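User: Batch of two.

Assistant: Item 1 of 2:
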Amino acid sequence: MSAKRDPRAPTTLPPEIKKELETEQDPILVEMKKERLDLKEALRKEFTFIKDAPDELRKRNDRITSQIAARKKKLAAKALDNFCREWFDAVDHTEIQQ
């Protein structure tokens, strides 16, 4: 059994860390959300429905939404990586080291 292939190793984040991720405010993510909110408010004010806005503006809104989702996914992956590293540091690997 190798140190990187331990079947006991976590493969998902525990609920308490997931909840912490949701409440933690990444400055880049906050800025992206603000930009999306401002754009949506402007589109709704001018066109009532976002689907009635010109393609260019709708695509910009979709692009920002995709970037937000990608950033959240990246932060979650980074948190899982850190969690796994801490787990491997904390777990006794005597049988692996032999």
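Item 2 of 2:
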Amino acid sequence: MNKEGIVMEIQKDKVGILTCEYEFIYVSYSSFPPSLGSYYTGKIIKKNLFDKLKRLLIIAFMLVFLMVLSIITYYYP
């Protein structure tokens, strides 16, 4: 799937763009990297399962931490 937007970040194998729907996504570029601030169209780089799992584990850890903290403050004011 192709997306287009303004180039905000350039890495060695991908370009971060800001789309008109205010999404920040990474797309691949062809032979040479575009310049910052230019309008660019490219193919979306999909995130792998590890990135999604890492995000889920961080959210679960934060929820457990907040629950433990609220239990401690409830019993020991």
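The CA atoms of residues 27 and 45 lie 5 Å apart.
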